[in-house]
Design brief:
InterPro entries: Pro_racemase_fam (IPR008794). The protein is built from six helices and 17 strands. By secondary structure, the protein is α+β, with helices and mostly antiparallel strands. It has two domains: 5-142 and 312-321, Diaminopimelate Epimerase, Chain A, domain 1 (Roll); 148-298, Roll (Diaminopimelate Epimerase, Chain A, domain 1). It has an eight-stranded mixed beta barrel with strand order 8-9-10-11-12-14-15-16. The longest helix has 18 residues, at 192-209. It is globular and about 55 Å long. The model has no long low-confidence stretch (mean pLDDT 98). Pyrrole-2-carboxylate binds next to helix 3 and helix 6.
Length: 333
């Protein structure tokens, strides 16, 4: 066996969506904040992301997180989210996977019935509360970064669909919300390619015709997620298919998407502080979200979102790279 590198991983899934948690082998990434580390990682070490996420070690809807020492004194670990699509500022299902791995591998001091872990993420500090029974992480509740509704009732021109109405909100990433009834598309897994094509076309139109920027961090300036709302969804129980750049569906109910959904519903006057939302994914798995209070995001009115879900460890691995491997940065078909 020849290998120039070895990356240690604990693989997990959160309500169906994988998180490959890289626990060793990367070293400390340069940068004074996790956002700066993210920017430098994308510029200088993106081949490591693609090696760990793309085929043949990953696949077209892979997701992961690299553990780091924190850059701030109030956090226990730093987290860099790695995806097939790039490095997200924040990832809810990934955070639940990380918290579960930290508890079940004993990488944090575990207290029962609750273990609190503070994570330094590129989007800000995220506190997780892990419910622990007999050493097992039973559920994870995360206090996500402040979220806000960016705009309601926007319109874009989308090839094949004409004018499409949408709301857009931020919950650690930007999310465009579109009702499937308006697109005339059914909420069925058998129609997943048509749904994905529609989501990607809307995403492109939103980014071209109505670009976004976070009021406090203008470098967060892209909408790579489209929430295709299923018919019959309400402010208490919402079902959706989440189309994500460059072409996959979130298997989980999407933690940052749930946070953005809470902000959108609050801005529409449909969900009050304290009320709960059950958010259901395309495969039927669920997160519960709630608004814990009001806040501001720059000069915008925002909310403090909390999201609860579950994650399971699926395996451990050492990922290697043989110097003769013809695909040192992986590939996607
Ligand atoms: O859970 O926040 C999330 C997420 C983002 C992309 C995939 N999952």
């Amino acid at each position: 066996m020849r290998s120039s590198v070895v990356y240690h991983a604990v693989d997990s899934h959160t309500e169906g969506m994988p998180t490959r948690v890289i626990t060793g082998g990367v070293g400390v990434l340069p940068g004074d904040t996790m956002f700066e580390r993210r920017q430098r990682f994308l510029a200088e070490r993106d081949d490591l992301r693609t090696l760990l996420m793309y085929e043949p070690r990953g696949h077209a809807s892979m997701s992961g997180a690299i553990l780091q020492p924190p850059t701030r004194p109030d956090a226990d670990y730093g987290v860099l989210y790695i995806e097939v699509s790039g490095c997200l500022p924040m990832c809810g299902h990934g955070t639940m996977g990380v918290a579960t791995v930290l508890v079940e591998t004993g990488m944090v001091e575990v207290t029962e019935p609750e273990t609190v872990i503070r994570l330094d993420t590129p989007a800000g500090l995220v506190t997780t509360r892990v419910r622990v029974e007999d050493g097992r992480a039973v559920s994870v509740t995360l206090d996500n970064v402040p979220s806000y509704s960016h705009a309601l009732d926007q319109v874009v021109q989308v090839p094949g669909f004409g004018q499409v109405r949408y709301d857009i909100a931020y919950g650690g990433n930007f999310y465009a919300f579109v009702r499937l009834e308006e697109l005339g598309l059914p909420f069925e897994r058998a129609e997943k390619q048509r749904l994905l094509d529609a989501g990607l076309a809307i995403m492109e139109a939103v980014n071209e015709q109505n670009p976004v920027a976070h009021p406090e961090n203008p470098q967060i300036d892209v909408c790579h997620h489209v929430y295709l709302e299923a018919p019959g969804s309400t402010a208490q129980h919402s079902r959706h298919a989440m189309a994500i750049h460059p072409g996959w569906f979130d298997r989980s109910p999407c933690g940052t998407g749930t946070s953005a959904r809470l902000a959108q519903l609050h801005a529409r006057g449909e969900l009050e502080v304290g009320a709960e939302l059950v958010n259901e994914s395309f495969i039927g798995s669920r997160f519960t979200g709630r608004i814990t209070g009001p806040t501001t995001v720059g000069d915008r009115t925002g909310i403090l979102p909390q999201v609860t879900g579950r994650a399971w460890i699926t395996g451990t691995a050492q990922y290697m790279l043989d110097p003769t491997d013809p695909f040192p940065a992986g590939f996607l078909l």
